[in-house]
Amino acid sequence: MFQITESCISRLDGFFAQSRRVSIISHTRPDGDALGSTTALLMFLRRYYSAEAKVVMPNAISQNIAFIKPSSTEDAYLDFSQEIQAAGEWLKSSDLILCLDFNSFARTDGLQNLLEDSKSSKVLIDHHLHPDETAFDLVFSTPDISSASELLYHILMAMPQIAGDATKLPAESAYALMSGMTTDTNNFANSVFPSTLRMASELLAAGVDRDDIVSHINNEYRENRVRLMGYLLDRKLTITAEGVAYIILTRKEQEQFDLQEGDLEGVVNIPLQVEKVKISLLLREDTEYYRVSIRSKVGYSANSMATRYFHGGGHEQASGGRLFFPQDIATPEGAEAYIVNILKDYFDEDR
Ligand code: 5GP
Ligand code: MN
Q: Which residue's alpha carbon is at the smallest distance from atom 24 of ligand 1?
């Protein structure tokens, strides 16, 4: 397992203790792990250090994960896409910037330039492949872990205030960490390590209500999502001879179903239920590109597909990227032909 050294913990403690203002950042369109890890760190800093800390997200936190945010902390979250001035000023005046659940500033949309120009100390806590280590003063990074939330859990457990006793974590941190790990593992379906189960066990023993978390994750979707799933699986799913499933969702369809951020969470996993499907792609049309989500079964690399054909990356079995028009395809209608074409190339060399 990834080693968290005493010297790294002592440097982290030093950064926390010396800072007056802290920005906790995560990636664009934050998911459960992004919100879980940032929230857990926010509540830990509030409890054990005197620095003023806020979470600064590149854009809005979607309704389906909002349950992770503790009540009475509204003022601690800034959305850069909506509050450019306030979020930008907070970031610029921070002497410490903590970056969670992303591997490069390019994953932070509008925050990218501010982060690149910033001279403040920066710490990375992440579990993606190929982190941009040179951009940070201190790096905690390994792909051999379930989630950024799990990595942060082990880091916090090693901090002097907690000293291996999970009951000393603020209850909101413990709840947020369990939530982030649960969403990133798809409720223990993938990327589960011995350390992941140890974390879950210790957090359960410390009193985290996992039933409450799982109920929030599974049973609070909008009706549109469930009806859309029927439509997508019945009418829009194609499975190729190579065992690649793809769904291409137009802007018009997204409007028809009144889709909001989060409504498509997990949909890309469903075609993998079919035995012959090895890789699943979901393309969502945006104004200048398709957002691409990729999932694969073990033995097939979602990451290499995202990197090679969609300007993206992520994890071996779960990655994402973009397909731009007119750079990659002349018009949105060209997406299907593009996929068919890349599959020839991908299955020629990359098995
Ligand atoms: P999702 O399909 O859930 O949006 O993303 C799955 C994984 O791929 C996440 O770990 C995410 O960080 C990564 N990912 C998604 N979109 C992009 C992208 O545009 N660029 C890169 N490098 N990674 C992405
Ligand atoms: Mn993650």
A: 320
